[in-house]
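Record type: ASSEMBLY
Status: queued
Input:
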Amino acid sequence: MIEIRDLEVRIGDRVIAAVPHLDVGPGQCVAIVGESGSGKTTTLLAILGLLDEAATVTGSIEAFGVRSPSTLRGSKIALVMQSPQGALTPTMRLGTLLRRALALHGVRGRAAADRTRQALRDVLLEDEILRRYPHQVSGGQAQRFALALALALGAEVILADEPTSALDVTVQAEVVAVLRRLHEERGLAVLLVSHDLALVSSIADHVVVMKDGQVVESGPAAEMFAHPAAGYTRELIAATPELPDA
Amino acid sequence: MIRTSRFDLLARIGAAVLAAIILAAVVMPLFVPPDDPHPVDALLPPGAGHLFGTDQVGRDVFNRVLYGARTSLTIALAVLVLAALVGVTLGVLAGYSGGWIRDVIMRVTDVFLAFPALLLALALAAVLQPSVTTVIVAIAATWWPWYTRLTASVAASVARRGYVDAARCLGVRTPAIVFRHVLPNSITPVLVQLSLDAGGVILTAAALSYLGLGAQEPAAEWGLMIEQGESLFTTKWWVVTLPGLAILLTAFAFNSLGEGLRAALDPRRLTR
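Status: finished
Output:
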């Protein structure tokens, strides 16, 4: 569904992200992990064509057979951002936002209402939330609403940029549960950017490890967590605190 | 919404005074026609018959002050609407788009800001025919750049917020992003500035009329009334002092209301 070949993003002479090869297949969950500044988010933004004008992008990004996937924004590819409320226009009620987004993609009236109801149910939100403004919902609700928006629009791939890192632990669990359900039950593909290895190991099929803009390791998740090849991956795994089983 | 508890005392007084002035300016002329000259009653001091006295041609000063309020408020409203429309539109475009569009808009803005507002308005008003419309156009022409600057700086920071990217991700087109997502979130400081500026506009309009470039006799306008009564200041104080106080009071009311709005709408005081 998404194919990246020889992607290179530069600002000036500095390479801020280089991804030689990355595929997200139907129903797959691919995670990009790495420390801050490793180029994870840059890769994600490059797919959506949302990079700053100062950045130059070379290589190819194809999604659903389209060369410049930014035209697929919203309809097939959806983004879930790190900051939950920050991604929702503060002066718009959530219902208005959802209605306008659907109208933009040609879904109106009865069909829009049906899709809205279904999507909210899928992310375990009440219809009542549509009357609220972004500052009146919790971080977890906002993140789930972002997922509902993606669902209602019929997105097939969700790009999630640190979807849980701005949330507290119990709320993280809610969002992860919803994300996993959409992935496993609905067959949605997910490209997850995260430094939370616990989250990654619980949901990802395939992991790409980045450091300083370069991919240092890439492979099936189970294998990588069991036998990390690159030294940096071992360090990352070792740095993740383990909790004793409750 | 603004909760009254956040509104300090001065702002409330300002709002009350302003409401009274607006009410008087709107309602009173419905019942009382503008006073005609009665040379026999010229320069009567304030008293029972004429609350504010009469001017040099025998017109009731109170009547003229109220009609003057109409003129002043109309000018203030027209100037602010014009200046805000132009200024905010250009500002949000400049702030959102960045690049050469911003550079062009901001350099033009700088040119206008380089002149003292009153001087530029004076020059404009002198070129055009003296009238209330002239005053409106002249002041609006000098006033919009402030709103452009203010809006541009706010819009530039709003344009980098997540929800603008999110909107782009949803495929929202640029005009809709600018006017539905950036503009509504950049407008609050402008609203505050507008109420703070209303007093300044009234003062500038009065100054232009005082210099003979604005409203013309027999129209009632505060600046014009002061100009006409100026020579009488030491002997017949009411002819010039009372319109002057009206200007002062109105400007003060707008300013305290604006300050109150600023405090009440401060984002750091917004709660859930």
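Annotation: Chain B is about 70% helix and 0% strand.
Annotation: The CA atoms of residues 109 and 145 of chain B lie 5 Å apart.
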